[in-house]
Inverse folding.
């Protein structure tokens, strides 16, 4: 007799390899919110944020020179003043308000309830994605510029900017696919070396300017030839500030890494004063260091580099300080400087990727707007890497071309942070604080609007990310709507007594009721209707279950059940974002508590089923018995252990 048909070996191996790949792909899950393995001194964490913040020295002087020309040092001074007296006070307040790394988005999350708040946060997440994705692509593009312009690099790479940038991004993605952990030690080393090399380069360049007074005279002549009124120069510099806004990046990252900062022994979860104090030191020190380097680098590059070299294709395009390092310290030092710059720019991309990987588990799963596989790191890395590839190709790996999109993301986040801090000051009724932060908010809003008008590609990229996030989030929300969506069930003593008493008398019968007047007549009529429709024996006891919809835009609930007695009627009452999901979770809880299968009774609803589907998705209600049964079917695969649903009428 012929034996069973055995599939060819190659098919079984193929299935095994596919399963192994899926297991590997989904193996790494995100760490729980706020959980970190170790704490570090604030100055070490400053270096972690500094790979993003300080790395902008690689391209900021060139961008300033292109935007402001001879006025670059004055425009940079305006940037520094806004950094020290605008962004720094704002983010010091953010650190006080959200000391667990939630950042300014979390401050604004609670301003609007229901779906308006969720859509508002999704829009801000679109700008966050713009900021971080462009950080990856812009930093990689600038690292490529340093590679190509190095005199020791073969000439055939000159036309391979896009390919080299894609390789660097792929290498970054490969690091995360293998398994990335925040390496504070590497960040400290990279930042320390990079700042030291920049200090040497600026020092030697300043010495060259000192020995050549003609450089200063030429710069002064150029300034006076454009306009001899200092106030006019300052006014023009203020108007040019939006084009230099890239120099403000890094503050949002500074508060996002707060859980890594070591506080003091007296810190509590509610008020970690030591961590907040050390975060203030981190933000202030980083801002002061960056301010010095921004002004100094702007001066030496403007005075020593011919204007035409800053243009696209010029030797200083995207690498002004590297140009000076090669020109005045030789190819050997210049190559070391290039390697340091390439490393920190590449690691800035790693910081941005880590930030992106923290966004999804922090917000979207709570909204039900991300599928379960987004809890794994590697699928997200592949998605972000693919998006970075597309952005690099679209912008042709050009640093200046991506500056507008980067600035848009940075400025929108800073404007939202300033707005959130202003509202916080208003709630605290501090008039001076409201006035000061309102002015800062207006400055950031003005800068954001000007940047968007002059460089609309940034808002286009942000709009793409916002649209993509909203569409995919809503699809995920609909797809996951029939999950239990209950994190925990808390029940008071009265409700426990009701359930135990009902279980001791036989079949557990629960009537789902929509609370109206809440008087005895309401429960009398409801019980009479259900008993007649479902032929429940008159002597069998029943228990009412009432779910009051709280915020239907929430996804995961902690259900707290309260036992209520109205006359002789016993009611279980609770609040939830979705009625059917809460009922299903409570029925399963009763089954597990009593060891008996509960029976739930509903009435028919009349109307368009599509309308009820939309009501369920948007308002947490709808065709409750049908959805409750579907939630139970997905939660309990064994039909014999599944609570029974009865619909009468």
């Amino acid at each position: 007799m012929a034996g069973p048909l055995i599939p060819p070996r190659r098919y079984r191996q193929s299935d095994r390899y596919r399963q192994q790949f899926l297991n590997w792909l989904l193996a790494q899950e995100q760490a729980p919110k706020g959980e970190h393995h170790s704490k570090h001194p604030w100055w070490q964490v400053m270096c972690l944020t500094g790979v993003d913040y300080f790395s902008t020295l690689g391209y900021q002087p060139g961008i300033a020179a292109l935007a402001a020309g001879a006025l670059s040092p004055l425009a940079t001074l305006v940037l520094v003043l806004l950094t020290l007296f605008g962004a720094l006070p704002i983010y010091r307040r953010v650190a006080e308000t959200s000391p667990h790394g939630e950042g300014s988005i979390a401050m604004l999350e609670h301003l609007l309830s229901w779906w308006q708040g969720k859509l508002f946060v999704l829009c801000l997440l679109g700008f966050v994605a713009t900021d971080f994705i462009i950080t990856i692509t812009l930093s990689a593009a600038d690292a490529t510029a340093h590679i190509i312009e190095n005199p020791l690099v073969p000439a055939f790479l000159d036309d391979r900017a896009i390919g080299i940038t894609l390789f660097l991004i792929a290498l970054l993605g490969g690091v995360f696919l293998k398994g990335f952990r925040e390496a504070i030690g590497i960040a400290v080393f990279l930042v320390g070396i990079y700042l030291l090399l920049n200090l040497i380069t600026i020092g030697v360049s300043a010495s060259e300017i000192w020995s050549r007074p003609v450089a200063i005279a030429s710069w002064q002549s150029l300034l006076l030839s454009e306009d001899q009124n200092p106030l006019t120069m300052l006014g023009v510099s203020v108007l040019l500030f939006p084009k230099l806004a890239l120099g403000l990046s890094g503050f949002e990252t500074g508060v996002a890494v707060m859980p890594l900062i070591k506080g003091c022994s007296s810190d509590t979860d509610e008020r970690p004063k030591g961590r907040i104090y050390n975060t203030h030191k981190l933000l202030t020190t980083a801002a002061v260091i960056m301010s010095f380097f921004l002004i100094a680098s702007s001066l030496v590059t403007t005075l020593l580099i011919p204007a035409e070299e800053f243009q696209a294709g010029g030797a200083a395009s995207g690498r002004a300080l590297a140009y000076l390092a090669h020109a005045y310290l030789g190819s050997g030092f210049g190559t070391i400087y290039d390697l340091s710059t390439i490393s920190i720019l590449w690691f800035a991309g790693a910081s941005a990727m880590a930030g992106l990987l923290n966004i999804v588990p922090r917000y979207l799963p709570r909204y039900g707007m991300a599928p379960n596989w987004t809890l794994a790191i590697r699928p997200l890395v592949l998605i972000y890497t693919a998006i970075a590839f597309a952005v690099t190709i679209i912008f042709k790996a050009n640093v200046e071309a991506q500056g507008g999109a980067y600035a848009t993301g940075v400025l929108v986040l800073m404007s939202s942070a300033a707005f959130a801090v202003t509202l916080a000051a208003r709630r605290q009724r501090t008039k001076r604080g409201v006035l000061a932060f309102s002015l800062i908010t207006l400055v950031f809003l003005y800068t954001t609007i000007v940047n968007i008008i002059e460089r609309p590609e940034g808002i286009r990229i942000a709009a793409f990310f916002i649209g993509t996030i909203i569409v995919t989030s809503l699809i995920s929300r609909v797809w996951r709507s029939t999950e239990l969506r209950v994190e925990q069930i808390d029940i008071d003593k009265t409700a426990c007594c009701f359930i135990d008493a009902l279980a001791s008398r036989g079949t557990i019968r629960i009537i789902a009721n929509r609370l109206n007047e809440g008087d005895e007549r309401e429960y009398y009529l409801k019980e009479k209707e259900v008993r007649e429709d479902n032929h429940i024996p008159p002597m069998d006891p029943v228990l009412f279950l009432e779910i009051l919809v709280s915020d239907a835009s929430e996804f995961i609930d902690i259900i707290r059940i309260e036992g209520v007695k109205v006359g002789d009627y016993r009611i279980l009452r609770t609040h939830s974002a979705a009625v059917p999901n809460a009922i299903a979770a409570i029925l399963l809880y009763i089954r597990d508590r009593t060891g008996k299968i509960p029976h739930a009774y509903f009435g028919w609803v009349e109307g368009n089923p599509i309308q009820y589907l939309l009501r369920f998705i948007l308002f947490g209600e709808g065709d409750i018995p049908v959805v409750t049964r579907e939630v139970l079917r997905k939660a309990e695969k064994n039909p014999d252990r599944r609570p029974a649903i009865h619909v009468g009428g």
Q: What stands out?
A: Residues 320-362 form the longest helix (43 residues). The first strand starts at residue 486 and ends at 491.
